[in-house]
């Protein structure tokens, strides 16, 4: 008789499967001959043509947003029944709500281990949450910060996180896949309708205030004496405000709001410099993708970006400070093409060393294996 496979549930708050989804990389970290993985979503499900999880099983709970707030009694009961019926050995929970749900259910389920993945900051700023977590955290848990900055935040939160139960597994991308998807510079610019020979600053991100695009446009407005262009791939509710700032600054024709694009990373080589002006960011995958195109990188000094930019030799500016950002853009403009190329190569070498998807998968597999070596709990 073949040995029983280990059953893993991976729970996310809402459906969001895409090429950069790190939860999908956790699925791929676990060989199917040894693991039977179920991916579950509390809210949402794919529409027609949307990508599907690569997990062996997928479960959509279809809760409303209101049901997942407050006490979440219906959610707790549904998850309890589901886990008892399926007999999972291990649970991977992403972000605060799924983590909190299994913190409360953990004592009542015969699950051998739990991994909670923290993707950002602020989730344990509230005193009640810290108090609750200190009471619910058990030796069956490991918490993962997706970057050095997130792990440092968890350890400093006074919520019960310690060096023994809190890991750092850097967010990562499939670098080889990203490179294979990228068009060359000429084709990328042709597809986007950008000038063939200009120097172009570029970024990718939803047009929402937290992405900081307005500060990037204002910084670019200070480069009126240059022949550079600015291109932004993304769509969102901030478009009217950004368009007004572009018109007011006389930048029409030099700043291109390109809208949303499927697999936006395929156009990265249209840019000469990648800029990330975010005001807050938990998982800066777009920055890593910019490095995969061997581009010099400029970014704000928010906690999730600063260590990466320092380690890769990128350029930092104080978040929301358009004046200093303009100085950083001028610094890059003053470089020769060869110097810009070297900055991009340095960022690429760092990416390969610190954010490769193979290391990411290996570290998750090791964390899971170590948890499963614990003595299994008695049946609750």
Description:
There is one protein chain. The chain has 380 residues and is α/β, with parallel strands linked by helices. It folds into 2 domains: 6-172 and 357-372, Rossmann fold (3-Layer(aba) Sandwich); 175-354, Rossmann fold, CATH 3.40.50. It is 38% helix and 17% strand. It is built from 14 helices and 13 strands. A 7-stranded parallel beta sheet has the order 3-2-1-4-5-6-7, sandwiched between helices. Strands 10-9-8-11-12-13 form a 6-stranded parallel beta sheet, with helices on both faces. Helix 8 (213-221) packs across helix 12. The longest helix is centred in the C-terminal third of the chain and has 18 residues, at 337-354.
What is this entry, summarized?
This protein is α/β, with parallel strands linked by helices and 380 residues long.
Layout of strands and helices, then pairs:
Layout: E1 6-14, H1 22-29, E2 35-43, E3 57-60, H2 73-86, E4 90-94, H3 96-105, E5 113-118, H4 127-136, E6 141-145, H5 148-156, E7 166-168, H6 175-181, H7 185-192, E8 200-204, H8 213-221, E9 229-233, H9 239-248, E10 255-257, E11 273-276, H10 285-292, E12 297-300, H11 306-312, E13 315-317, H12 322-333, H13 337-354, H14 357-372
Parallel strand pairs: 1-2, 1-4, 2-3, 4-5, 5-6, 6-7, 8-9, 8-11, 9-10, 11-12, 12-13
Helix pairs in contact: 1-14, 2-3, 8-9, 8-12
Any key phrases for this structure?
14 helices, alpha/beta, 2 domains, 13 strands, Rossmann fold, 380 residues
Number of strands: 13
- What is the correct CATH architecture of the largest domain? 3-Layer(aba) Sandwich
Helix content: 25-40%
Could you tell me the radius of gyration in angstroms? Answer: 22 Å
User: What is the CATH T-level topology of the largest domain?
Assistant: Rossmann fold
Shape: elongated
The biggest sheet, with number of strands, parallel, antiparallel or mixed sense and barrel status, is: 7 strands, parallel
Task: Provide the residue-averaged pLDDT.
Answer: 93
Strand order, sheet with most strands: 3-2-1-4-5-6-7
- Content of β-strand: 15-25%
Structural class: alpha/beta
End-to-end Cα distance: 28 Å
CATH superfamily of the largest domain: Glycogen Phosphorylase B
Provide the low-confidence segments as ranges: none
Number of helices: 14
- Count of distinct structural domains: 2
The CATH class of the largest domain is Alpha Beta
Order of helices and strands: EHEEHEHEHEHEHHEHEHEEHEHEHHH
